[in-house]
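Weekly sync notes, structure subgroup
Attendees: PM, AL, DS (notes)

Item 1: joint prediction request from the bench team. They want all two components modeled as one assembly rather than separately. Inputs as received:
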Amino acid sequence: MGIIRRRSGSVSTTTVSLPAMTLSYIALFAWAFVVLFPLYWLAITSLKTPLDVNGGPFYIPWRDFQPNLDSWHYIFVDLGEDTFRPYLNTVVVGLTSTAITVILGSMAAYGLVRMRYRVTLGAIASFAVGLAVTVALLIQRWALPLAALAGLALFVLLLQTVARRSKRAVGNDDIAFWMISQRMLPPVAVVIPIYIFFQQLQLLDTWGALIISYVASHLPIVVWLMRDYFQSVPLELEESAAIDGASPYRIFRSIVLPLAVPGLVATFLFVLVFAWNEYLIALFLTSANAQTLPLTVAAQNATRGPQWWYMSVLILIMIGPVIAMAIALERFIARGLLVGAVKG
Amino acid sequence: MSTLASSRVLRAASASWRPVAARLDRSAGLVFILPAVLVILGFSIFPLLASLYVSLSRLGFSEGGVELKFVGFDNYAKLLFGIDRPHFLGISGPLTPIGIAILTAVYALFAFLLYRYVRGPGLTVVGLVGRVLATVIGAALVWLIVDTVLTSGRPGTLAVTLIYVGADVSVQYLLGLGLALLVVQRLPGRRFFRVVFLLPMMITPVGVAYLFRMLTDTSKGPLYPVWAHFGLTDVSWVTNPWGARLAVMIGDVWQWTPFIFIVMLAAIETLPQELNEAAVVDGANRWQVFWRITFPQILPATSTVVLIRLIEGFKIIDLPNVLTNGGPGTATESLTLHAYTIWRALDIGGSAAVAYMLLIVVTFVGIAYVNLFRRRVAALA
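Output from the run, pasted for the record:
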């Protein structure tokens, strides 16, 4: 890829004058304090005894209170297996679902940016009719596969006949909005149907159920974010590659994806964070085997009130790996990846 | 313009391929989008329909178990006109002069926008009906907030949620964008800040809620000296409705500003630098460079991230639930928490009805936002 050049070194627009620099640093340190102080409080709370926590605000270890590792000991040794299993579950479910979501979502986003889709109203109506028939058959106590097959057959039939006459259609923007609209219903409303759904598939309390749920519910976010990043990739590059005989898949893989790396990294990072921290769906779909860490955190709110010290330890060990990943990936969100690409 | 060019890309691409590959190329559009569509469709349709049905029924106990009894729109009627009205819509009081002034101003603006659309070019029937509908619903929501917040009444969960979303998203956006602009400068140590600023987002929302409960505790929290100074240690500040709401909003801003920060950062970093350099050579100052060059280019990303935060913000639950348990009374209760509390009381139909009302409001806000803002941005780009 000779045409794509990375550019490093200083750029004239970004040299900063001294007063501007001072003000910037004041603002940056102020917000850093706002961010870090609560985390500091978590850290010292994890080193306090229940007596220290309840005795009043103690700020500085060794001066105000004697730090100890009792809570850490409890979480890692006494709870032991009950900490590590949710931990493993969280890692597996988080990474797997995020990887799948980012791959499927970027493909769809690229399609929505560079291809033109037309879904005729006839096709949508056919689908609705097929779905209605399926539901009606289910209410008549047909078996699910049979009812679904009948609905599908009707859908295809209508699609090939009646729907062909339909001229009015919805386009890319409408498809994108439909996708994001799937996130509008609050999880509280959908957990019971989702529970029944996975019960039927016999996937309750497995990684599979969580991975499927997270992929489906986070896909719209990936699609929406990646759309914008792909939009900013210069079209000229793709065109010249196409003229050189590259297939759309190859253009996507070798040109568009590498150029959208900052966006991919940012998107990956917070889809991972969403999956890592999801609470309500995990609460319903898992029990002993596939339980994830957010449930363990919430479980520290016992009948005697929240066990702040255990909670703090758990929150800290939960964010550890994500922070490591953020540090590792941060350099990809680097400026200037696109600089010079078009000129070449 | 992009569609034209893309069809050119496709045609050029498929021109010299062997038959199979050419066929694959032509269906490339479907290959790209179908997996995502199928996953979303497969996962969303059943829950959507099922909870719609549940919202139209009531859970009853019968011999040998539970059953759902179809009750039509009873659950919705209860929310809008019946026993749950104070909880959902709030209690209204007589309008104050300030309220009347605000209402007049907002309604005048709505009327002006509508008038401008009617007189302007591009008037269509669908567009007109859509705008009239949007104006009516928007006017109703504004009236609801003014009538319950700025009077002696008290806001219901709908108004509280709207306040949360409006305040949270605007503050988060301003902070997130400002921080992103600060760290794109070539300052020593900027990588440190970039990672640090992401941290709040990485904590599980339940954890953030408990963390803020710890921080805001008036007798054991780190702000104890502040409370002591004002003699507030024995009073729980969460007995003050606005104090409690403010705490919830601060928690939400703390947690989600990083989301906007990272998206805006990535958007700014992906921008080509030539324009900025040219502008500086021509003597533009930093403010002009930002306002005339950077900002228009990050508008698409802005509109996306704000839409996502709007949608997610409407679903706020953990903070009010853990921090204040929705109290005092129902002062900090959001719609999702409302749905959750009556769901715990086994009124599953009522809970689904609240959720559907939320869906309707979010859909309305989303569509209005996309049509009024995003389309315009897309036209600019």
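Discussion: The CA atoms of residues 225 and 267 of chain A lie 7 Å apart.
Action: AL to compare against the crosslinking data before next sync.
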